[in-house]
Amino acid sequence: MKLISVPIRRIGFQANLLLGAERRLILLLISSVVLIVNNIPTLIGISLAAVLFGVGLIAFRMMAIKDPFLSEIYISHIKLRPYYPARATPFCTAQCKSS
Q1: Residues 42-83: pLDDT tens digits?
Q2: Where are the domains of the chain?
Q3: Which residues of 10-39 are buried (b: 16+ CB within 10 A; e: fewer)?
Q4: Does this model's pTM top 0.70?
Q5: What is d(CA 59, CA 65) in angstroms, rounded to the nearest whole number?
Q6: Cα–Cα distance between 14 and 38 in angstroms, integer?
Q7: In angstroms, rounded to a whole number, what is the distance separating the alpha carbons of residues 21 and 54?
Q8: d(CA 39, CA 32)
Q9: DSSP element (H, E) containing 65
């Protein structure tokens, strides 16, 4: 009996990235840069906006490399925080006394 080789294709949900980072974060960065340029129309304001855009773009790209859905996961974490309270205590229990 001959073995049949089937190619395994990479399928699934691809992240919707813009400039190599999360779309929502990049659009927020661009809108904040535009607001800075419109409110401070001097050379200092434009250079501040350029530096903010460059640093923000690098940071958001690094975040997208680690996890392309990081902002959505963080928002979900913040929403669900009251349902999953921490159970840790600073006091020693019987388990730590035995060791």
Answers
A1: 999 999 999 999 999 999 999 999 888 888 888 988 888 877
A2: 18-79
A3: eeeeeeeeeeebbeebbeebeeebeebbee
A4: no
A5: 10
A6: 35
A7: 13
A8: 11
A9: helix 43-66
- Measured in whole angstroms, how far is the alpha carbon of residue 56 from the centre of its chain? 12
As a whole number of angstroms, the distance between CA 28 and CA 35 comes to 11
| In contact, 19 and 57? CB cutoff 8 Å | yes
Q: Which helix (H) or strand (E) holds 22?
A: strand 21-22
Q: How far apart are CA 33 and CA 27, in angstroms?
A: 10
Six-digit token string for 7: 């190619």
Q: What does the pLDDT read at residue 35?
A: 96
Helices 43-66 and 70-80 cross at an angle (nearest 10°) of: 80
